[in-house]
Write a structure and sequence with these properties.
Blueprint lengths: L5 H22 L5 H42 L7 H34 L3 H37 L4 H45 L11 H38 L8 H23 L10 H31 L5 H24 L4 H8 L5 H14 L2 H17 L6 H16 L2 H23 L4 H47 L12 H42 L12 H15 L1 H56 L9 H37 L1 H7 L3
Helix pairs in contact: 1-4, 1-7, 2-3, 2-6, 2-17, 3-4, 3-5, 3-6, 3-14, 3-15, 4-5, 4-6, 4-7, 4-14, 5-6, 5-16, 5-17, 5-18, 5-19, 6-7, 6-13, 6-14, 6-15, 6-17, 6-19, 7-8, 7-13, 7-14, 8-9, 9-12, 9-13, 9-15, 10-11, 10-18, 11-18, 11-19, 12-13, 13-15, 14-15, 15-18, ...
């Protein structure tokens, strides 16, 4: 029995559930006319940004399509399917983010209004909106995979190894779109956030989201274009990338084993993802809490849903692997469980290091007593220390997955096991992403509650949901980074396999004594730092323009500070839009150009070194930046809850500075690095033929 049919079925179920969740959200009222008006301004700003971003990105995709079209039809370097696969990968990645953004901007005022009735009701609206994001990503991902699989397999009658080889390339389109979305959206949201905080909270001493601050609408717009649209595109490419790489390695691993066909090996990751959809749907119904719940209770409510989904997948995966591969290869099931456990472990320890329910963030808040310098030092230290546990977890998962899958006797099976563990980790993405995406909705709800002058109790409830969102966002980023490391390892192997297909006589020399490999390692290790430097600088430049504009309006608009005049929100939104779209180009081009240039100069061996260096350094840097930023943010929230003097105190001012430094860490540079390390591999695979033909070394 061919279980591949589960993939389109899973796609349909995920999309239908997303539609159901969207309908649930839209049934709630936006509240007063003032609340609806604020939500409309946020919605208009987000739509305007994405329209302009997609126009610019469209030019890039058109140019790449033409280049790939020429290579596909006039050379043997790539197949003619590659340009079209590239376009569809980018389209579905962008569409995922767009749909998520649309529902998020529709849910913000509804969450604020629901919070007037109770904490659980507010959680229900925000989580339902997050669920749309989570399930539309997995639904469109599985739909894209299904279309290409059936088209290539049955429409063009290609052998399975050519099917997976062609499908690998549409991951490049998804990764390219994700990088533009993450970087551009991240620059927008953090430029607005930094500008609003520095001038509003630090200089003027007015509350966060105060309607007198001209940057507050831009800040709320940024939450949606960066933390929702950007994140959706990001995790779409992570999801399909892990499945595609596992499928390709499965074909290679079982090519010399008569008992198992390549089709069966491809079915495992595809069907696993489909099962994950069902498990995530069931788990989502378990997310609920009581009124006046503590931070730990709220976290437990979300964890209950994700853990249940993981357990259900672990149960169902056993008969799936047994049925498809037989008892001789049941060790592959161990790799699935290894990935699931690794995901849960990374999530828990990310929560431990970033939630104000635990000691690290509470201790970080304490450092604010001696000023902003010490809280910055403490946050950097916390982020660096937090890299230890994920490295141990990922390392253990790699070892277990490799050997339990049969790597001791057959390296191909071991590598397939590592790739499957990444699929296992991401199989709960539907509900995991839902817990992440709900955070920006809650954040926007808090801003609307403040700007609309709702009862302080409403803001207290939205702040509780927002603080939880900071933790789940950090957890989601840790989850994405961990899966990126496993997927990147699989893609490196897929690259070497692809080289062997292009030139069966090519002899790899991956020894550290090979200068090409050594130089590649250094270049690869440098790239995440260069990328982070460019994105951080971009946020700084964009934020400077917002700071100057907010200061100008405070000075020139008479009656603004007294609440008698209205701020010019549109100008700040326009400044953020122009700055972020201009600044996103250079960082994104690094991932496209670097593998080609390194390959042409250092050859195949140099590219492998570059990919290895980028994966190791990128993994560590991304974790450090994401966790430092999350901890700074929640340390600020911890003080705002009334600890250490509360809002307006010297401790609070120091924490705001720390949070401001952490903003581009956790929402721009950090989460973009995991896309970088995978896109480097994708580009390397697509242009492998060019490198083999024209490299100097």
């Amino acid at each position: 029995m061919d279980l591949m049919f589960l993939t389109p079925v899973g796609a349909v179920l995920a999309i239908l559930f997303a539609v159901m969740m969207a309908a649930r959200v839209l049934k709630f009222s936006e509240g007063s006319d003032k609340m609806a008006g604020i939500a409309m301004n946020i919605r208009k700003g987000a739509n305007a940004y994405l329209k302009r971003q997609y126009m610019i990105v469209g030019i890039f995709f058109a140019a790449m399509f033409l280049i790939l079209l020429v290579l596909g039809f006039s050379t043997d370097f790539i197949t003619p399917f590659v340009p079209f696969a590239f376009i569809t990968g980018g389209f579905f990645s962008g569409l995922s983010g767009f749909i998520g953004m649309k529902i998020a901007t529709a849910a913000n005022a509804r969450t604020a209004n629901a919070a007037k009735e109770g904490l659980n009701r507010g959680l229900r609206v925000a989580f339902s909106a997050g669920s749309v994001m989570g399930f539309i990503v997995v639904g469109l991902g599985l739909l894209d995979l299904s279309i290409w699989y059936y088209l290539l397999k049955y429409g063009f009658s290609l052998p399975i190894e050519q099917v997976t080889s062609a499908m690998l390339t549409f991951g490049m389109g998804a990764s390219s779109m994700a990088l533009f979305a993450r970087v551009g959206g991240g620059i927008f949201t953090k430029a607005a956030d930094v500008g609003a905080d520095l001038v509003g909270k630090v200089e003027a001493g007015i509350p966060e989201d105060d309607p007198r601050n001209p940057a507050v609408i831009a800040d709320n717009v940024g939450d949606n274009v960066g933390d929702v649209a950007g994140m959706g595109a990001d995790l779409y490419e992570s999801y399909v990338g892990s499945i595609i790489s596992a499928s390709a390695l499965g074909v290679s691993a079982f090519s010399h084993i008569e008992a198992v066909s390549g089709d069966q090996a491809v079915t495992i990751p595809m069907a696993m993802a489909a099962i994950g959809v069902i498990a995530s749907i069931i788990g989502s119904f378990l997310v609920k809490t009581k009124e006046n719940a503590s931070q730990k209770s709220l976290l437990s409510a979300l964890r209950r849903g994700t853990n249940f989904a993981a357990i259900l997948i672990a149960i169902i995966a056993f008969p799936l692997v047994w049925f498809m591969l037989g008892q001789d290869y049941i060790g592959i099931y161990g790799a699935v469980v290894s990935g699931l456990l690794a995901g849960v472990g990374i999530g828990f320890f990310t929560e431990y290091f970033t939630s104000d329910s635990y000691k690290p963030t509470k201790d970080l808040a304490e450092t604010s007593k001696t000023g902003s310098a010490t809280i910055i030092i403490g946050g950097l230290s916390l982020g660096m220390k937090s890299t230890f546990v994920p490295v141990v977890i990922v390392g253990a998962s790699v070892l277990v997955s490799y050997f339990i899958s049969g790597g001791a006797n057959d390296a191909g099976l071991g590598l397939y096991g590592i790739a499957i563990s990444a699929v296992g980790m991401l199989s709960t993405l539907g509900i995991t992403l839902a817990t992440d995406a709900y955070g920006p909705v809650a954040d926007n709800a808090g801003g609307i509650a403040e700007m609309a002058g709702l009862d302080p109790e409403v803001r207290r409830r939205t702040d509780a949901l927002d603080s939880l969102g900071n933790t789940t966002a950090a957890t989601g980023k840790g989850f994405a980074i961990g899966s990126a490391a496993l997927t990147a390892l699989a893609l490196i192997v897929a690259y070497t396999d692809h080289i062997a297909e292009i030139d069966p006589n090519f002899v790899f020399d991956l020894s550290i004594k090979n200068p090409a490999v050594l130089i590649g390692l250094f270049i690869g290790g440098m790239l995440p730092f260069l990328f982070a430097a460019l994105t951080m600088k971009s946020v700084g430049r964009a934020a400077q323009s917002i700071v100057m504009e907010v200061r100008r309006q405070f000075k020139e608009i008479k009656g603004l500070m007294e609440g008698k005049a209205e701020a010019d929100y549109a100008t700040c939104v326009d400044l953020c839009t122009k700055s972020s779209l201009r600044e996103m180009i250079a960082p994104a081009l690094i991932a496209i150009i670097a593998p080609i240039v390194v390959g042409l100069i250092l050859g195949v061996n140099g590219v492998v070194g570059m990919l290895a260096g980028a994966t190791v350094c990128g993994f560590l840097l991304a974790i450090m930046m994401a966790n430092s930023g999350g901890a700074w943010d929640n340390a600020k929230k911890y003080i705002e809850s009334g600890k250490l003097g509360g809002k307006g105190s010297d401790c609070h001012k120091a924490a705001v500075v720390g949070d401001t430094v952490g903003d581009p860490f956790k929402d721009t540079s950090g989460p973009s690095i995991n896309i970088l390390i995978k896109l480097l591999s994708m580009v390397s695979i697509v242009f492998a033929g060019v490198v083999v033909a024209f490299s100097i070394l």
